[in-house]
Amino acid sequence: MKLMVQLSPCGGSGRHLIAYETAVHLAMRRGGGKYLIMDISSNAVSPLDIRGCYLGYLMGRYHPSEAIVKIPRHDNFYYTRFITPTCIKDLNYNLGLVNSRLEEIISKMAIEIKDLIKRNYTVIITASYDILTMNLIEELMRGPLSFIMDSEPVLISNENIVCIKESIRLMEELNLRSKNLIVNKVPAAEIMRLRDEVISLNGLNLAVLIPLSRQLYFRHFAHYMSVAIKANTNPHARTISHLFDKILRILEGTEEGGKVLALIGGLINETDLIPSVNEGAKIKIF
């Protein structure tokens, strides 16, 4: 996978950590490479200080060093924001103008992302829901980058069933063939109930339930340590790391989908997704 999209319709939901852990585990599976996490939201707080923005770089107003920052402790991991309040002010843009020039912007993005991929980068696009995000995603999916999107967008939700249903609705709106859902920050007391609700949702290829965990938390992103690194000494971090490996195998197609993966009691609980609540579900725990 060289280009991935992770979309959170309800905002928050730890999507920056999900994107970061995805990059770390891809790097471990591949034995290296370079990774760019690109946040294309217009309404989110950045986890890292960044002066410029990727849009300003595309338009020739910022040097790459102003628009893209290195992620601490990783020589080959980078982060960028597509747009920021400071950037909009510097460019004398507004979101309406950005939306009106989407075709031009996507064309420039395609050239840059193709160049990054040629230089051995993997690009992980992360976004909360807003009009700009949805317009960009739709253009990406049917535009010049569609042929390198190895896996379709992954939806990231919180535990609220309304948010989960909104994620499913967006999957239908985007006409996704492979529907993949990660539900993050699920209270431990709710995870069994939520698993039973998710099992019967039609059309999903993969659903992942991740409980609230100190292992996936940061006050300052610059100080956060991946579960893949903490796995050496922390059994719970090791299990979460195994879960991310399993998610990537399913998204890459090297492992069969049609599953709900849930962390329950420190173990990965694997349940087959079923088309209706009247059919039985096979459960594995490992």
List the helices and strands and how they pair.
Layout: E1 3-8, H1 15-30, E2 34-39, H2 54-58, H3 64-67, E3 68-70, E4 77-81, H4 85-91, H5 95-100, H6 102-118, E5 121-128, H7 131-142, E6 154-157, H8 161-173, E7 179-186, H9 191-199, E8 204-211, H10 227-230, H11 235-252, E9 259-264, E10 267-272, E11 283-285
Helix pairs in contact: 1-11, 6-7
Characterization of the model:
This is AAA domain-containing protein. Strands 3-4-2-5-1-6-7-8-9-10-11 form an eleven-stranded mixed sheet, sandwiched between helices. The C terminus is likely disordered. With 286 residues, it is an alpha/beta fold. It is globular and about 50 Å long. Strand 7, helix 9 and strand 8 form a beta-alpha-beta unit. The chain has one domain: Rossmann fold (3-Layer(aba) Sandwich), CATH 3.40.50.
Computed CA radius of gyration, to the nearest angstrom: 19 Å
Portion of residues within helices: 25-40%
Question: What is the total number of structural domains?
Answer: 1
Molecular shape: globular
Beta strand %: 15-25%
CATH fold node name: Rossmann fold
Question: What would the average pLDDT be, to the nearest integer?
Answer: 83
Give me the CATH architecture, please: 3-Layer(aba) Sandwich
Q: Give the strand line-up of the largest sheet.
A: 3-4-2-5-1-6-7-8-9-10-11
The CATH first-level class comes to: Alpha Beta
In CATH terms, the superfamily is P-loop containing nucleotide triphosphate hydrolases
Characterize the main sheet. Answer: 11 strands, mixed
Secondary structural class: alpha/beta
The ordered H/E elements are EHEHHEEHHHEHEHEHEHHEEE
> What distance separates the N and C termini?
27 Å
Query: Which stretches are poorly predicted, pLDDT < 50 over at least 5 residues?
Result: 276-286
Please, how many helices?
A: 11
| Secondary structure: number of strands | 11
Protein name: AAA domain-containing protein
InterPro entries: P-loop_NTPase
